Every structure is written in structure tokens, then in C-alpha cells.
Amino acid sequence: MTPSVETRTSPQTRTGAGSAPLPAPGHGGVDFEQRVDFGRLRDYRLGRARAALESSECGAFLLFDFYNIRYVTQTWIGGALGDKMTRYALLPRGGEPVLWDFGSAAKHHQLYSPWLAPENCRAGMLGLRGAIAPAVGLMESAVRELKGLLSDAGLADLPVGVDIVEPPFLFEMQRQGLKVLDAQQLMLDARQIKSVDEITLLTQAAAMVDGVYQDIVEALKPGVRENEIVALANKRLYEMGSDQVEAVNAVSGERCNPHPHNFSDRIIRPGDQAFFDIIQSYNGYRTCYYRTFSVGSATGPQRDAYARARQWMDAAIEAVGPGVGTDAVARLWPAATEFGFADEMAAFGLQFGHGLGLGLHERPIISRLNSLCAPVEIQPGMVFALETYCPASDGFSAARIEEEVVITERGAHVITKFPAQDLFIANEY
């Protein structure tokens, strides 16, 4: 189901001004406002995954990607256990999801996740990315169990779609006679159209970062270190209810060009240009949200770089809408050679768009690297981030801007609200 959210198509609306915002309600449950309906969210996600399975030749999807697991089973373990290739889920045709989880988490799901059948919440262990050697036999017994479930469901002769997998597990599936196909493409297709509940969660997550940027500009003074800004952002996000701060990039001064995509312990100095990217999730739904500031004052080259990055951003926001190809958006951005790079591979991620959802990089991916040769049609219900980057003529400063947009029937709606139309001077002298 495509979300029934609309906005007008004027340039002011497309850049996020002069229109009613998409709702970003309080995070708690109340009886006096319509907020996220988590039951409806669970039904939508499982329904999309089932439709993807039915459209394929597979008898089942076997999922290791922890975003796909959450999408299908509505469960989550983050941090140290979320990416160890130990959790996995089976979605069979005509059946209910079966989840193998880390030790006692399975019992917890039996008690607190009533949308899953208790017998389908099972403890599982495959080896923690090889820390337990495949020779122990955990993978062999897991594949044997999977084959039994498929046989009982009458699916033994159909291929199994797998999203991501450790080589020893793949080899074991093949050794035991299972035909393996790619399910990741199908799951990414399923996840690219967001429901109204997913859009609300994405908007709530963006609102959290709006507030963190206010804290950052107040703290952004000479003498503070990049890592201190990272600590501040982490603290505030977890206080506001983030369930995972995936990364906070903090880049300042001479580190701005070329873009290092990380943070350091550099001390921020008067007149620095500094940009930040806050990547975090609320109830699983992510932000990718850059803002650029100058500290105390700004130079002509810094202002010029920002103005160009903003022009590229506004052109992209004006262009995106239902039926537009991602190639048309990518062509609005400069070629890599126009801003100091040898080719599009070397400049990848600087003039860039990417889907947002449970994962940081979902569909569509918009870049001159891929979109010109393999464009994707933009559809209502897509949510993605647009990123532009412009190095300054001084040789070391640079501007980085990112806006998150929701595509509705009538165009794009920006949900990142911290001021970015002009270069923001933090603690101006």
C-alpha cells in the first residue's frame, strides 16, 4: 500500500518551507493522537516480504541481513550481536516466519513477541563469524533442520533465496542439495516503498537530529575537539530514545578536503569550516543528515563552496518526484572531474542519493556511477537522502549538505529541518 501523504509542488514546498510538515509526533503512546500503529507496521512489512517471495521462484527466503530479519520478524538485537551472522530467519511460502536467535533472546521473544508463534522462536548458533569453526558441525545441523522444515512444508524441491551468507554456510547448503538463489534484490525491492508508519518513524528520527544540531552549534567553538562533538551527539540521541547511533562524522578545518568520512580528535579553530553527519535510528528507522557550519566567521571561498553545494541540492529537490528517473537527478550534479576527482568511482558518495529505512543505504541509489546506465523510476513512498559536496577554492575547506525527502503523489517533501539554505555561522564573532 502506498502511503497517503501528499504535499504541494511549489518550490517552497519542495525545499521544506511554506507547507504543513509531515507529522513527527511524540515518541510515547497516547490515547489523544494518532501516532505510529506498530501492529499495522508489522503487517505491512511482513506482507511486502511475502509478496516478494510469491513473485519469485523460491520456496522460502533464508535471511541473515539483520535489517531483513527485523522487517520480517519484527525483532531486533543490535550492538555486538546484531551483525555476527548468527541470527537468521526462514520465511516459507504459505507459512509463518521462523527465527533462530542468540540464546535467551529466543525465550524473550516467546514471552514478549506474540506475533511470532512460540515454537517458531528458536535458539540458534552458527559460529560467530567463524569463532566456532564450521568443523564443529553447527552449520551442518542447522541446514539439516532447515531442510526438514522445508520438506514438512512441501517446499523441498524449490530453491531457497538467501540475502547474505558466510561461505561455509553456503557450501553446506549446496552440499546438502539445496539450490540457492539471491533474495537480497527482492527484499530491497520490498523495502523501498515505505508505509505511513515507516514515514512517521523516519520523520521522528529526523526531528531528533534537528535538536542535536542545535546543541552542536551552541558547542561549536574554538578549543572543542571533533570527538567531543561526537560524544555530545551520542549522549543526546540516546537520551531522546535512539536505539542505535551508527556513526557521527565530525570533519573540520583542513580535514574537510578531501572528505575522510570519519572523525578525529582535532581541535576546532577560529574560522574553520566544519561539517557533521548524524547516522542513527529510532525504532530501527535511520537518519543520514549532514550540516555544514563555519566557526565564528566565514571566508569568501567557504561561502562560495556552500552556495554551489546548495544550488546542486535545490536543483535535485526540485527535480525529484513520481515518474522521474534517477538518471535525471544524477545529471544535475557535477561530474567527478568538475570538482577535482579522476572518475566517478573516486568521487562516489559525494554527489549522492540513497534510500533510507531500516538500513542506511537502501534503494534508490542515485549517483553518476550507476544511475546514468541503470536508472530507477522514483515512486511515491520512497524516502531517501540527497547529499552534495563542494570543495572550496582555498584548497582545504569544503561544504557538505544533506536533506532527507519523502516522495508523495505530488512531489518531494523535505523532513530535515535544521536551517541549511545559507551557510550557518556558529557562535559568530
How is the secondary structure organized here?
Elements: H1 11-14, H2 38-54, E1 60-63, H3 66-73, E2 88-92, E3 98-102, H4 105-112, E4 121-124, H5 138-152, E5 160-162, H6 167-175, E6 180-182, H7 184-191, H8 196-219, H9 226-240, E7 244-252, E8 273-282, E9 285-286, E10 289-295, H10 300-319, H11 326-330, E11 352-355, E12 362-366, E13 383-391, E14 398-408, E15 411-414, E16 424-426
Give start-end ranges of low-pLDDT stretches.
1-18
Level of helix content? 25-40%
Main structural class: alpha+beta
> Helical element count?
11
> How is the main sheet built?
6 strands, mixed
Strand order of the largest sheet: 4-3-2-1-5-6
- Taken in chain order, the helices and strands follow as HHEHEEHEHEHEHHHEEEEHHEEEEEE
And the CATH topology of the largest domain? Creatine Amidinohydrolase
CATH class of the largest domain: Alpha Beta
Which term fits the overall shape? globular
Return Rg in Å. 23 Å
Strand percentage? 15-25%
Quaternary status of these chains? Answer: single chain
**Number of DSSP-assigned strands:** 16
What name goes with the CATH superfamily of the largest domain? Creatinase/methionine aminopeptidase superfamily
Averaging pLDDT over every residue, what do you get? 94
The rounded distance between the terminal residues' Cα atoms is 52 Å
**How many structural domains does the protein architecture include?**
2
Summarize the structure in words.
With 429 residues, this protein is of the alpha+beta class. It folds into two domains: 38-190, Creatinase/prolidase N-terminal domain (Creatine Amidinohydrolase, Chain A, domain 1); 193-426, Alpha-Beta Complex (Creatine Amidinohydrolase), CATH 3.90.230. Helices cover 31% and strands 21% of the residues. The chain is built from eleven helices and 16 strands. It has helices spanning 11-14, 38-54, 66-73, 105-112, 138-152, 167-175, 184-191, 196-219, 226-240, 300-319, 326-330; strands spanning 60-63, 88-92, 98-102, 121-124, 160-162, 180-182, 244-252, 273-282, 285-286, 289-295, 352-355, 362-366, 383-391, 398-408, 411-414, 424-426. A six-stranded mixed sheet has the order 4-3-2-1-5-6, with helices on both faces. Strands 7, 8, 9, 10 and 16 form a five-stranded mixed sheet that branches. A five-stranded antiparallel sheet has the order 12-11-13-14-15. Helix 4 (105-112) links the parallel strand 3 and strand 4. The protein is globular and about 70 Å long. Mean pLDDT is 94; it is low at 1-18.
